[in-house]
């Protein structure tokens, strides 16, 4: 590996080295973005057909039988097939969209530029990181087409169901093995990525770029990479143990004398709760892996459009850091009803309530900084505001769920589904959109269409609330998640709500097609970026060419003189002072 | 204030890279036109940070395996097993390999610093280390084969499952260390070895030794 520790490598000439097996962090970042986009479309498509089924259970979706041999006779999905689609929706969205886009895609493209490096220190590892992740995605999608389809165990893949093999239902044999292989492979990719992100931040900063002069987005990626390093290093062993339970006859997760479908399983001596412990030790940091990069991106976008720094640069960084640390201490709150010792529930409840403090600090800094600012309204800043809104709305329901006594009622209902979709799913997606509209000119040298961007925002914003706010109502009404039909007496009156949600989901999905059109159209035919710094930003990505040259800064490395957010400095020659500008700011506050 | 006076920038004191000299320092930067660009003499070499990052991630993985073992033990007692005696011999081998590697590293450091002439052959000690590493893997393989022959395979019972998973995972990581060592030897022969490469590889190798001693204690106490 040490061989690869050259940040400097010549510009590639062949097509393959340039666009396919590229060592350039910028190409790798775009590859990650493309993968996330593909995965998001697949995930969204799955959610559409699930939603249609939930609203109109007997409605035949034309062509559905083509997706599965046994899952959709007469184009109406079976209960098992519904669960399979739901599992794939969750897995694809959490791993291949929410982790890859805000962290791996934007982080790869912009972290080295924002720290002032020519590339990441281990470019071969970086290339492997993407291709490994891509293989992981292929393995996961393959499970649609082999055996009896993908696993139905949910993205959390709770054992023992996930460990007992095909006796557990369709996809519980080969489907689970493919799922575990895919996620294990994904972990390798993210570990390699984290290795590069951490070393880039610590070792590759240019002259004058102290840690406190890193933009908030770079800080967010750095913090996320540390979380990724520790979280994925735990999920991978869990996947290995799960695979061994399937292929080697071990019994890590299956207890003795378990009877499934009238069969006594041959396994002996496993622990039923072991998977949950391992999974949630990864799983809770994972939700912060999804959201913290969004926080960084949104802060960066908001500051540029507010033309003033956040109330406190440092407190925001410390708050994101505390989120990362605390995220390891709260995982037990996913297991309040697992039969865990009630004392443990209490022990996990406290840090869960405490973690709301740094989250609240972050939100208050955003709101306090926004207050009275003359925010420039564009698609990027709208999505950043949308992120803040979603994060607050989704976060508030976390206060309820953090308390074991309330969670016993709300656990595994739509309330939880609404909570995490808003706070982690939609919020992180809005972070991705904010980053896309903001950085698109730097990435491809063309502007995205602002009008379409604003239409996309308002449709998504209204649509997302119409989808996920009713989820909370459904949850309080006792609607259990993962049901594929609502035939119980108390659920039948809720079906109109589900129909409304389905219509909202289709509407919101349509808005994403507008985004897709805007993205592709602007990529090839968009208005060329007027200059290298269309948003008048100050950080290093705006001081280089558009798109940046192979080694990011041409033949002269930047030297950094200021912190990244010198906006509206009194007496300065312009309203923003670039990090690379040697201008003397007098007594203006400036991070050292 | 802000009177665009171009006074010299205030830059934090530079951290002088500890290894390498000439040719752009640790990054071997030598542009074709001979004009050295501003190199970042600001930071330690990534190989050194990188290896700590890798070790942290491996530590987390084995912490996960350990906690799996402890959670499982909390559910119901584990069946006791007898560890194959060859493991203790292997432990001595891996400790010895760390010692020989350290001898090699110091000798190489000495003659990189010009304190010794090339007469004292440091490569020999690297070969010995590599050989001891291979011997350790052979010893572990022997233990697995013997256990299987006695009818104690991976799925014999949960204790054996943990035994195999922990030892095999360690061996796989150790093979990575052997590959790194092979690289170091190759580079030493071509006179392209950098100190940071050597230091990172030896740090990893010592880490593998420590990890093995930890695993042996864990297996010995828990199983």
Quick structural gist:
By secondary structure, chain A is mainly α. Helix content of chain A is 59%, strand content 1%.
Keyphrases for this structure?
heterodimer, A: 592 residues, mainly alpha, two-stranded antiparallel sheet, 2 strands, 59% helix, globular, disordered N terminus, B: 223 residues, 65% helix
Explain what this protein looks like in three dimensions.
The complex is a heterodimer of chains A (592) and B (223). Chain A has 592 residues and is mainly alpha-helical. In chain A, 59% of the residues lie in helices and 1% in strands. Chain A has 15 helices and 2 strands. Chain A has helices at 15-20, 25-55, 79-115, 123-142, 174-203, 216-247, 274-306, 313-326, 342-354, 356-370, 379-401, 404-410, 414-444, 450-476, 495-525; strands at residues 259-260, 263-264. Chain A is globular and about 80 Å long. The model of chain A is unreliable at 1-7 (pLDDT under 50). Chain B has helices at residues 46-75, 86-112, 122-149, 158-189, 195-222. In chain B, helix 1 (46-75) runs parallel beside helix 5, helix 2 (86-112) runs antiparallel to helix 3 and helix 2 packs antiparallel against helix 5 (195-222). Chain B starts with 45 loop residues before the first helix and ends with a helix. At the A-B interface, helix 5, helix 6 and helix 7 of A face helix 1, helix 4 and helix 5 of B.
